[in-house]
Amino acid sequence: MRFRGKLIDVSCIQHFTRVLGTISKIIKSCVLRITPSTWYFILSEKVISGGIQIWCELPQGHFFDEYAMDGVSAEDNEIYLEVVPENLIKALRTAQAAKWIKIKLTKKHAPCLTVEVDLPTVSAHSRLVVHDVPVSVVPHRMWPDYQEPKLPKFDVSICMPQIKTLKNIVEKMKNLNNCLTLAANYNGELKLSVSTDMVSVSTHYQDLINPVKRDKDSDENREPQEFSEAKIDIRRFAQFLSGQQVIPNRVVCNIVHKRVVHFYLQHEDVSLQYFMPVIAT
């Protein structure tokens, strides 16, 4: 296996760092899947045991000026590595003003992603900073565990308000309860609510966009104003909102009634899917 990539454009370096920063805020460890066209960051916990699933895509052509790789074989030209995103971020924290960054797959006692950062100096000499980020190679037999999650048929799909607005509200709500109920309908309405023995608090949004229209044939028994809802872990939701260092163009919330919530974030060249299981009631 072989991989080598180089980022030169300053805006690409900064964008790449912000994307990794977002990922590091919401997951501690994940699988990095490297293909000739795309980088994927994947987390696939067992939803039935309360786990989450994350699927983040970064088209390499939007970030890397140089890119070369050889996978495990000609037929399976891919590389799967288990990595801690926070370690990658630590290696990139000095890179905001870098002339260029090189990322290579190396072996130094153990497999590593070696990050070389060329920093500017007041003299004509360059200053090269090298970080070795330990990784683990995922065996080929385990690759099927890290395929893109299949989307269920959602009961409702709605574009969410601004992340910053939601974050402020959820941060206050999480002091009341560990659970949050998300509810939405095909009239462009979204409702966030928490309840205790003493008080119930809810926030309502109207005139939001439903990016996917209601299937009248399959949903003939459901009226557009009827809410579909899901109860989720409010702390995980708050962590998801506060971790966004890339301001997405839009965030879509898809709900399977009382089963699962799926968030889809789109920002130009980057997409992130986040599956959050529902708390049983």
UniProtKB/TrEMBL annotation:
<dbReference type="Pfam" id="PF04005">
    <property type="entry name" value="Hus1"/>
</dbReference>
<dbReference type="GO" id="GO:0005829">
    <property type="term" value="C:cytosol"/>
</dbReference>
<protein>
    <recommendedName>
        <fullName>Checkpoint protein</fullName>
    </recommendedName>
</protein>
<keyword id="KW-0539">Nucleus</keyword>
<keyword id="KW-0963">Cytoplasm</keyword>
<dbReference type="InterPro" id="IPR016580">
    <property type="entry name" value="HUS1"/>
</dbReference>
<keyword id="KW-0227">DNA damage</keyword>
<dbReference type="GO" id="GO:0000077">
    <property type="term" value="P:DNA damage checkpoint signaling"/>
</dbReference>
<comment type="function">
    <text>Component of the 9-1-1 cell-cycle checkpoint response complex that plays a major role in DNA repair. The 9-1-1 complex is recruited to DNA lesion upon damage by the RAD17-replication factor C (RFC) clamp loader complex. Acts then as a sliding clamp platform on DNA for several proteins involved in long-patch base excision repair (LP-BER).</text>
</comment>
<dbReference type="InterPro" id="IPR007150">
    <property type="entry name" value="HUS1/Mec3"/>
</dbReference>
<dbReference type="GO" id="GO:0005634">
    <property type="term" value="C:nucleus"/>
</dbReference>
<comment type="similarity">
    <text>Belongs to the HUS1 family.</text>
</comment>
<dbReference type="GO" id="GO:0009314">
    <property type="term" value="P:response to radiation"/>
</dbReference>
<comment type="subunit">
    <text>Component of the toroidal 9-1-1 (RAD9-RAD1-HUS1) complex, composed of RAD9A, RAD1 and HUS1. The 9-1-1 complex associates with LIG1, POLB, FEN1, RAD17, HDAC1, RPA1 and RPA2. The 9-1-1 complex associates with the RAD17-RFC complex. HUS1 interacts with POLB, HDAC1, FEN1, PCNA and RAD9B. HUS1 does not interact with RAD17. Interacts with DNAJC7.</text>
</comment>
<dbReference type="GO" id="GO:0006281">
    <property type="term" value="P:DNA repair"/>
</dbReference>
